[in-house]
From TrEMBL:
SUPFAM superfamilies with a match to the protein in the record: Radical SAM enzymes
Protein task: Catalyzes the cyclization of GTP to (8S)-3',8-cyclo-7,8-dihydroguanosine 5'-triphosphate.
Gene: moaA
Residues holding GTP: R18, R68, S99, K160, R264, L265, R266
Lineage: Bacteria, Bacillati, Bacillota, Bacilli, Bacillales
Pathway(s) this gene product operates in, as recorded in its UniProt entry: Cofactor biosynthesis; molybdopterin biosynthesis
Family: Belongs to the radical SAM superfamily. MoaA family.
Superkingdom per UniProt: Bacteria
Annotated catalysed reactions: GTP + AH2 + S-adenosyl-L-methionine = (8S)-3',8-cyclo-7,8-dihydroguanosine 5'-triphosphate + 5'-deoxyadenosine + L-methionine + A + H(+)
Organism field: Paenibacillus terricola
Protein name: GTP 3',8-cyclase
Annotated [4Fe-4S] cluster 1 binding sites: C25, C29, C32
């Protein structure tokens, strides 16, 4: 193994960086923010595009080759295509993806594609307009579907839809999403509800294990088989319905965690390294802008302290945990 690669104490090689560009969002999804909303960081606390680019320039020679732009909602930050142009010009960067709620995607898809964006993940937790508005506290599902269509038109591949499954909320829409994967070359990714930044136990009432998706297939008599993972599928276990144009995947951080193959690091919008999504540990890298050696050293230090697993399942069962979970909300971390 090349000595310069970013490797943690458990031998996991890290080649993937998730970059949050803002904690701001135009929606207020129930699993991401409290109902009263949040106090967002002022612009001066957000890393500049030039600072983000400098960090990636340090990491690319160390094996980072895949990037994902996240938020909050990244498309609420002005000039995002400029950052993507900067990042796509860095030698060694092979793939730049975007996680978005899709509301603004239709108006920016052309520009993002031209700047070097490779693919998109669109959050879509319900196809029912009233239910979507309830989950997002005011979102318009039609705009997301327009963004999906625009993604087809400009040629983003693959296109993935992320569905956080919630008991009694959208778990009765599994069949409808599966039909989408059958009829269109789209990749549905069902995600288990996670206790990120939730200091209570209310999330437990919404948790449903993703065995529910396969059970739905069986109940409906729909044949499916394990499918080769789609590029960028990360922790998803991928399946395909018989005769389908697309696929569906299961991301199970609670019932079947994927920590053993974790290859990702996170950079928060305010300039902190998070080696693990769940735990509170963070390292301020923004203070080292201009010092290449210090940036590299801090990333290696963060990796040296990366735990073997996140222990979210213990949060579900009420068992004692070995560390302190983050109090940051998902929108503040970047997912």
């Amino acid at each position: 193994m090349h000595k310069n690669l970013l490797v943690d104490p458990f031998g996991r090689v890290h080649d993937y960086l998730r970059i949050s560009v803002t904690d701001h969002c135009n929606l207020r999804c129930v699993y991401c923010m409290p109902e009263e909303g949040m106090k967002f960081d002022p612009d001066h606390r957000l890393m500049t595009y030039e600072e983000i680019t400098e960090i990636v320039q340090v990491l690319a020679p160390l094996g980072i080759k895949k990037l994902r732009i996240t938020g909050g909602e990244p498309l609420v930050r002005k000039g995002l295509d400029r950052l993507i142009e900067y990042l796509s010009a860095i030698p060694g960067i092979e793939d730049i993806a975007l996680s978005t709620n899709g509301i603004y995607l239709a108006q920016f898809a052309d520009r993002l594609k031209a700047s070097g964006l490779t693919r998109v993940n669109i959050s879509l937790d319900s196809l029912v307009p009233e239910k979507f508005a309830m989950i997002t506290r005011g979102g318009d599902v039609r705009k997301v579907l327009e963004g999906l269509q625009a993604s087809y038109q400009v040629g983003f591949l693959p296109i993935k839809l992320n569905v956080v499954l919630m008991k009694g909320v959208n778990d009765n829409e599994v069949a409808q999403f599966l039909r989408m994967s059958h009829e269109q070359p789209i990749h549905i990714r069902f995600i288990e509800y996670m206790p990120i930044g939730n200091d209570g136990v209310s999330w437990k009432t919404g948790y449903v294990p993703l065995s529910h998706v396969l059970d739905t297939c069986t109940e409906l008599g729909w044949a499916y088989e394990r499918h080769e993972d789609i590029y960028g599928s990360g922790p998803a276990t991928t399946y395909q319905l018989e005769g389908a144009a697309g696929t569906f995947g299961l991301i199970r951080p609670i019932s079947d965690h994927f920590c053993g193959s974790c290859n990702r690091l996170r950079l928060t919008a305010d300039g902190h390294i998070k080696a693990c999504l769940y735990w509170q540990d963070e390292y301020n890298v923004r203070q080292h802008i201009g010092d290449t050696a210090a940036i590299e050293s801090l990333f290696r230090s963060a990796l040296a302290r990366k735990p073997q697993t996140h222990e979210m399942a213990k949060a579900l069962s009420g068992e004692a945990q070995s560390g302190v979970p983050t109090i940051r909300r998902m929108s503040q971390i970047g997912g």
